[in-house]
């Protein structure tokens, strides 16, 4: 009988390939832990994606929608067209005469009514912004732009024409507020409204100071800013917004006083035809069109 030889390298008595050993199987508790960790990881990723989407919406998309909405509001404001210069003057709108006597003042309108616009020459490239009655976030600041503190003085009135606006998000009309310097112009233009006193009027304020305060320091919007018990004799402007950027921890406040006023029928304040340094120059065609355009309601 032939002898069965064991192949080289093989052990005697082994008739098949070696079997690999298996480690201990995880317990039921371990499987539960692994499952919980996996689900938690997926939830964290989902939350992260949602937070990123929220930030994109809050910081970018609200600006896109807000700018579009506020531009539409300005276009729809009923107001008198600015006259153009006479044929012997340089091309462009007429320059308004400065009036320093008692200014005409319109009556305070109903809540959420847009009654004026604001432009700041220092903020080159920024559009004309609507000013509406009230400062509630959902009804005015998020939807309509700049809000007027209810009960505060109206443009041109003795007292404090106090307004608020977002510094970030929702078109951020006061985003560049920290750039303002003493002597800078802030130009307010009232709408036609009911056609009564104070309608279709320019009010040019001059910045006199800026400060950062706690939100509780509401005396900044008093008739005499910082002195709630005093009787006003000046025509003040106060602009408030959140500070620092992307935070509501404090408030950035700008104070100004009325320099002069002028009827829209007389022309445009020269500050709107000047650079940030105050030098009067030639406006581009787009800006001239904006200045001389009347609202769709006229």
Please give the count of helices.
3
Query: Into how many domains do the coordinates divide?
Result: 1
The CATH topology, please? Sortase, Chain: A
| H/E element order | HEEHEEEEEEH
Number of strands: 8
Global outline: elongated
Task: Name the CATH class.
Answer: Mainly Beta
Q: What's the N-to-C terminus distance?
A: 121 Å
- Roughly what is the average pLDDT, rounded to an integer? 84
Helix content: 10-25%
CATH superfamily: Sortase
Ranges where pLDDT stays below 50 over 5 or more residues in a row are 278-286
Topology overview:
Elements (H helix, E strand, L loop, with lengths): L27 H49 L37 E6 L9 E5 L3 H5 L4 E3 L10 E6 L20 E6 L10 E13 L21 E9 L6 E14 L21 H8 L6
Parallel strand pairs: 2-3, 4-7
Antiparallel strand pairs: 1-2, 1-5, 3-4, 5-6, 6-8, 7-8
Features:
298 residues, alpha+beta, Sortase, Chain: A, elongated
Compact overview of the structure:
The chain is an alpha+beta fold and 298 residues long.
Describe the structure.
- By secondary structure, this protein is of the alpha+beta class.
- It has a single domain, classed as Sortase (Sortase, Chain: A).
- The protein has three helices and eight strands, in the order αββαββββββα.
- It has helices at 28-76, 137-141, 285-292; strands at 114-119, 129-133, 146-148, 159-164, 185-190, 201-213, 235-243, 250-263.
- It has an eight-stranded mixed beta barrel with strand order 1-2-3-4-7-8-6-5.
- Strand 7 and strand 8 form a beta hairpin.
- The longest helix has 49 residues, at 28-76.
- The model is unreliable at 278-286 (pLDDT under 50).
């Amino acid at each position: 009988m032939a002898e069965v030889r064991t192949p080289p390298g093989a052990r005697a008595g082994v008739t098949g390939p070696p079997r690999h050993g298996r480690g201990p199987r995880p317990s039921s508790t371990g499987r539960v832990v692994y499952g919980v960790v996996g689900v938690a990881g997926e939830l964290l990723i989902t939350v992260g994606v949602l937070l990123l989407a929220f930030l994109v919406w809050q910081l970018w998309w609200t600006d896109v929608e807000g700018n579009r909405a506020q531009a539409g509001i300005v276009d729809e404001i009923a107001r008198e067209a600015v006259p153009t210069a006479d044929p012997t003057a340089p091309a462009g709108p007429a320059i308004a005469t400065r009036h320093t006597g008692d200014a005409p003042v319109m009556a305070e309108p109903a809540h959420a009514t847009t009654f004026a616009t604001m432009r700041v020459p220092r903020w080159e490239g920024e559009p004309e912004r609507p000013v509406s009655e009230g400062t509630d976030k959902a009804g005015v600041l998020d939807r309509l732009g700049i809000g007027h503190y209810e009960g505060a003085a109206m443009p041109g009135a003795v007292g404090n024409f106090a307004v608020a606006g977002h510094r970030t998000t929702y078109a951020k009309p006061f985003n560049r507020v920290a750039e303002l310097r003493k002597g800078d112009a802030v130009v307010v233009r009232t709408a036609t409204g009911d056609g009564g006193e104070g309608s279709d009027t320019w009010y040019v304020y001059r910045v006199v100071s800026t400060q950062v305060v706690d939100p509780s320091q509401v005396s900044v919007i008093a008739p005499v800013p910082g002195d709630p018990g005093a009787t006003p004799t000046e025509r003040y402007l106060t602009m408030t917004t959140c500070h620092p950027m992307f935070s509501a921890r404090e408030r950035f406040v700008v104070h100004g006083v009325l320099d002069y006023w002028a009827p829209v029928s007389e022309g445009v304040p020269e500050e709107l035809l000047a650079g940030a340094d105050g030098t009067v120059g030639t406006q581009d065609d787009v800006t001239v069109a904006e200045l001389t355009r009347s609202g769709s309601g006229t």
